Amino acid sequence: MMMMQRAAARIFSRASHRPIKMQRSGIHGNTEGATASTKSWGEKEKAQENMWARQAEQEKIKILKQALSEQKKTTETIRKELDAISKRHE
């Protein structure tokens, strides 16, 4: 909360030193740059989200492959024990 108050105070103190004409030029001026900037920002944000999702999925796949490997080892051990027991009872 305190940081927001400081940031707001900085913004308002800087704005008071600017001529009114400069303050209004951004409001009533050309908005094409803002639109292009927003579009590229959205694309960048989407790309970062996609990268994060891909990394999260890769981590899940890695964990599942490790679990599968351990399960295969356990299954093989049980199979060998079963074969040994079966041979003793033949």
TrEMBL record:
InterPro entries: ATPase_inhibitor_mt (IPR007648)
Chief location bin: mitochondrion
One term under GO cellular component: mitochondrion
The UniProt record lists the keyword Nucleotide-binding: no
Gene3D superfamilies xref list: Single helix bin (1.20.5.500)
Function per UniProt: Inhibits the enzyme activity of ATPase.
Superkingdom field: Eukaryota
Keywords, comma-separated and alphabetical: Mitochondrion
Keyword Mitochondrion: yes
Protein name: ATPase inhibitor, mitochondrial
Annotated region (Disordered), positions in chain: 1-52
Cell compartment(s), UniProt: Mitochondrion
Family: Belongs to the ATPase inhibitor family.
Pfam families to which the protein is assigned, alphabetical: IATP
Annotated source species: Circinella minor
Molecular function, one GO term: ATPase inhibitor activity
